[in-house]
Amino acid sequence: MATAEQEQRQRFRHLLIIDDAEGRRTISLEAATYSIGRDTTNSVVLHSKMVSRQHALLLRVTAPDSFAYLFRIVDGDLQGKRSTNGMIVNGRRLFSHDLKHGDVIIFGGDVKAKYYAVSDLSDADFDRFCEASDLSTILSNSVNPFQTLVPTDDALQSMSEASLVRLASFPELTPNPILEIDLCGTVTYLNPSAVLNFPDLEELGLNHPMLEGLLSMIQSGTSVHAHKSFFAREVEIGEKVFEQSVHYIHESDLVRSYVIDITERKRAEEQLRHQAQREAIINRIVQAMRVTMVTAEVLNTTVSLMVEALGATHCIIVQMSAEGELTNQYCSEGASGREDLLQGNTAFLRYCQAQLQAGQQVVLADMDSAMDLDVAAIARHCGLQALMMTPLIYLQTYLGSISLYQSESNARGWSEDDLELVRTIANQCAIAIHQAQLYQRVQDLNADLEQQVQDRTAQLRQKMKELERLNSLKDDFLSTVSHELRTPMSNIKMAIHMLGQFPLGEKQQRYLKILAVECDRETELINDLLDLQRLEAGGNPVTVERLLLQDWLPGVLEPFRARLKDRQQHLEVSYDSEVVAIETSRVSLERVLAELLNNACKYTAKGGKVHFEVQGIMQPEPRICFRVTNQAEIASHELPRIFDKFYRVPHADPWKQGGTGLGLALVKKLVEQLSGEISVDSSDGATTFIVSMPPLMPTAPALY
């Protein structure tokens, strides 16, 4: 049995010895990838100004037909950008080289490195190796394994094309499975990831889902893939879904597959569809609440949407009086006119009354076994299998309930998402009922106001306060919905982007473009609403930093130059040479200037000019003024309202681009948050927005 020291000596060691301005050091190469350069974020840091920030890469490559590996050095960074001063290996300038024992590498002209691949070196020997100045003795006693690790030139010539391609493309390092078969169905290659993900692939061969049908798709004359060298398909294995890209290599009669696990993407797409449907339902209910105070209209809309969203057979919403008596009920289309079902619902309500009044949601997956015999008999008579009852409670007052039923032929149960959605809708329905009740009471009070004005004034004020509180709750709800819409909108944008990666017809591309544009508009509205709400609530702290205006402003202006050029507009920029820097929030100030420049482009006709100016003012106190002027005039009676939310100047958009009317409201809030002031002047065919900022913010808010 080998001793521990013998095992240490048999292990190959790959070493890189570097000499630079910091001295000599030895690095044991064990990882799969190393970045080399002057920047301190590199795996191997070289101390020389002649070396690029990211100068070279070291990649571990498995030698063909063996389990040994070598290291390949490549000039440049991960994006393929070459180094400034190049790389010299053994006296030759090279872009890529498979390192051999004893190779000498020069980085940037003044950093020297040597590569050694040795074995028979114990840990103690290795420590001495790292400290020794003369390496000849140690290296002469060690074994150079390179002749077994890297093929000779003769061996390279005798290698198969597949082996050479595999050596060049690093399939051993990729985290995605790669598999290859010949036209007889024999597995010719599996990379480590393929072996890990499909351990039974070699055993099952063509019966494995990843290989099943591949040869028939390649060979069949009637197949849609006949005469094609590439196609893609989706393969389901258990609960996972894979995207398989299949390539037929004519030169070697091999079929190679590149596999990506898209399970999470598929789940995200499915969740996205459900989420979009549910958000649409909530939005429609909110819209109904916003346009009417009539409870019947809101609840009739709700019962129809609940059946559609949750796949229920029936939905019934009942209103209860303060004394616990049923006052109104609203039924989905299938339940309307069915007296047996309405009577059954009343019986079920009595059965669950205590739980509902306590604010508990009642869910029965099997009504036949979960209820008393008499009530279960009613459920069987009505053909009902599953039940969900959700109370309508507001300010600890029980106002009614929502009943959802699944028939025996349509019973699938209720998920936690279903329960949460119904609870959310029930809360809004309770608000709508209570709001309508309050509204009706106010109407009744107004009808009698002449006779009761002295007695009821105090009560009316109280009720109006309650209405304001309800409006605040509604605003909170709208804010919550806007925030919750942000994630699905991001997923929608991702799905649109992914769809755009596949070949589409002209009509499909047009529809996809429409989806992308509308998605961007919706995302912009949601973001503006959330930003404005945070600013108004004072919960948007900023990070203060020093901005050198000559360096920072060109980046702010650059995106608008191309836009102005497309519209044949002209941008003029002027700086006050005495204005050098400002200490403020980069993000907030950049957004303010971008919004003002965007408006200037938007409301300037073709051929017009936009002027941007930076000016320093010392009296009565030091200020830095940013002026944005465009050739368009705003009527004087419109100026007082342009910073109001959702307000847009009528007939002032020559490009017909539309907008939300939130941009200038956001600008005003951001400027105030930065301790600045904004004003506008419009006359003689031109409009100028002036943002006046202190060079240094008087108080810095808490940082993120």
UniProtKB/TrEMBL annotation:
Catalytic activity: ATP + protein L-histidine = ADP + protein N-phospho-L-histidine
SMART domains noted in UniProt: FHA, GAF, HATPase_c, HisKA
FHA domain sequence ranges: 34-94
Keywords per UniProt: Coiled coil, Kinase, Phosphoprotein, Transferase, Two-component regulatory system
Enzyme class label: transferase
GO MF entry, a single one: phosphorelay sensor kinase activity
EC number, as in UniProt: 2.7.13.3
Pfam family, one: HisKA
Keyword Coiled coil recorded: yes
InterPro entries in alphabetical order: FHA_dom, GAF, GAF-like_dom_sf, HATPase_C_sf, HATPase_dom, His_kinase_dom, HisK_dim/P_dom, HisK_dim/P_sf
Domain Histidine kinase: 480-697
Residue runs in coiled coils: 435-470
Protein name in the entry: histidine kinase
Organism from which the protein derives: Petrachloros mirabilis ULC683
